[in-house]
Write a structure and sequence with these properties.
Its EC number is 4.1.1.45. The protein is of the alpha/beta class. 38% of the residues lie in helices and 15% in strands. It has one domain: Metal-dependent hydrolases (TIM Barrel, Alpha-Beta Barrel), CATH 3.20.20. 42% of the residues are buried.
Length: 345
C-alpha cells in the first residue's frame, strides 16, 4: 500500500496556556490575557472579550489528537496575530516576542515529529528584531518568522524595515506574512474586517514589497502570504497594467513588473473555493502554493487539505506538492532529515 501524502499545515496558530498579566507588568493597557474557565478560553483585552478560543488553541495533546484525526503530519506553529504588539513600547514588545518564541520552540522540542514553528518579532524596533532573528535562528533553531501586513504606519516597503529583511536573508529565514489590524469604522459590521479587510491587507503587503522594490533588493528572501494572497492573484492583470500605463506613480521604485514575481512568492491554500484554488495554482504555479488551514479558528479549513484533495484536475504529483513538499521548500527543511522521509520516495 502506498503511503498517504505528507501533509504539512503551514498556517496554524497557538497560544501558551498562561502568561504574565502584561498590563500590570508594564503599566498600560492594550495587552491580551487568556482566561480559561471550564475548558473554554477567553482572550481579554482591556477588560473586554476579544475572542473566545477552544482548548485546542493552547492544549498541545488535544491539538495532536485533532491532527491525527485529520491526517496532518506536521503543523507549523505561529502566534495569534493580536500578540504581535507592534503598538507597544519596543522593549516590552521584545520581551513578549521572546516569551512567545521560547514557548513555541519548547513545544517543537517536545514534539519534533509533529511540529515546526515560526517566530514573532518586535518590528516597531528593527534593531531589536534583528537581534531576535539571530537569537531564534542560532539558539532556538526556528526556520523563519510570521509578521503582520504592516507595522503601525509603516507598510512593508518602509526603509526602516530593510535591516530586518537583510537579517532574514543572512540567516536563511523564511517570512510568512499574515494580515492583521484591519479595523476601520466602515468595516465594523458583518465580520467585514476578517471577510474583506484581511484579503485587502494581504494584497497591500504584497504590492508594497513589489512596488517598493523590496523583493528586487532581496532576491533570496522567501515570502509566503496567508489566505491565498488576498486579492493579489486575481488583480495581477490590473497591477501589471498600472505598472505600464502609469509608471510615474506605480514604477518609481521597482524595475521589475508585478508579473515578473510569479514564481517568487508563495501563497497558502486558504481560499475556501475549488475554482479559486485552481486559479491560484494555475496563475502562481504548483510549486508556490502551500497547505494552510488557519487552525484552530472557525474561518479556517476544518479538515486541512480537503479542498486540495477534492480537485480531480490536480494530478497526484500536484497534490503532493501542495500538501507538503512546497512547505519544506519554503521552510528550507531538508527532506532527508524529516522523520517522514519514506514518503518522499
Amino acid at each position: 500500500m502506498p503511503h498517504p501524502p505528507l501533509k504539512i499545515d503551514l498556517h496554524t496558530h497557538i497560544l501558551p496556556e498562561s502568561w504574565p498579566d502584561l498590563e500590570k507588568r508594564y503599566g498600560y493597557g492594550g495587552w491580551v490575557k487568556l482566561e480559561i474557565k471550564n475548558g473554554n478560553g477567553y482572550m481579554m483585552k482591556d477588560g473586554k472579550l476579544f475572542r473566545r478560543v477552544d482548548e485546542n488553541c493552547w492544549n498541545v495533546h488535544h491539538r495532536i489528537k485533532e491532527m491525527n484525526f485529520t491526517g496532518v503530519n506536521y503543523q507549523v506553529l505561529s502566534t495569534v496575530p493580536v500578540m504581535f504588539s507592534y503598538w507597544a513600547e519596543a522593549d516590552h514588545a521584545n520581551e513578549v516576542s521572546q516569551f512567545l518564541n521560547n514557548h513555541i520552540s519548547a513545544t517543537v522540542d517536545k514534539h519534533p515529529d509533529r511540529f515546526m514553528a515560526l517566530g514573532t518579532l518586535p518590528l516597531q524596533s528593527p534593531a531589536l528584531s534583528v537581534a531576535e532573528i539571530q537569537r531564534c535562528k542560532k539558539e532556538l533553531g526556528l526556520p523563519g518568522f510570521q509578521i503582520g501586513s504592516h507595522v503601525n504606519d509603516w507598510n512593508l516597503d518602509a526603509d526602516e524595515l530593510e535591516p530586518v529583511f537583510q537579517a532574514l536573508v543572512d540567516n536563511d529565514c523564511c517570512l510568512f506574512i499574515h494580515p492583521w489590524d484591519m479595523e476601520t469604522k466602515r468595516l465594523d459590521q458583518y465580520f467585514l474586517p476578517w471577510l474583506v479587510g484581511m484579503p485587502t491587507e494581504s494584497t497591500t503587503a504584497i504590492c508594497s514589497l513589489i512596488f517598493g522594490g523590496v523583493l528586487e533588493k532581496f532576491p533570496k528572501l522567501r515570502v509566503c502570504v496567508a489566505h491565498g494572497g488576498g486579492s493579489f492573484p486575481y488583480t495581477l492583470g490590473r497591477l501589471e497594467h498600472g505598472y505600464h500605463s502609469i509608471p510615474e506613480l506605480c514604477a518609481t521604485k521597482c524595475k521589475l513588473t508585478p508579473k515578473q514575481f510569479v514564481g517568487r512568492l508563495y501563497f497558502d491554500s486558504l481560499v475556501h473555493d475549488s475554482e479559486a484554488l485552481k486559479f491560484l495554482v494555475q496563475t502562481m504555479g504548483e510549486d508556490q502554493v502551500i497547505l494552510g488551514s488557519d487552525y484552530p479558528f472557525r474561518l479556517g479549513e476544518n479538515k486541512p487539505g480537503l479542498l486540495i484533495e477534492s480537485i480531480d484536475s490536480f494530478s497526484q504529483t500536484t497534490k503532493n506538492q501542495l500538501l507538503g513538499l512546497n512547505a519544506l521548500n519554503f521552510l528550507g527543511v531538508d527532506r532527508t532529515k524529516c522523520c517522514q522521509e519514506n514518503l518522499f520516495n
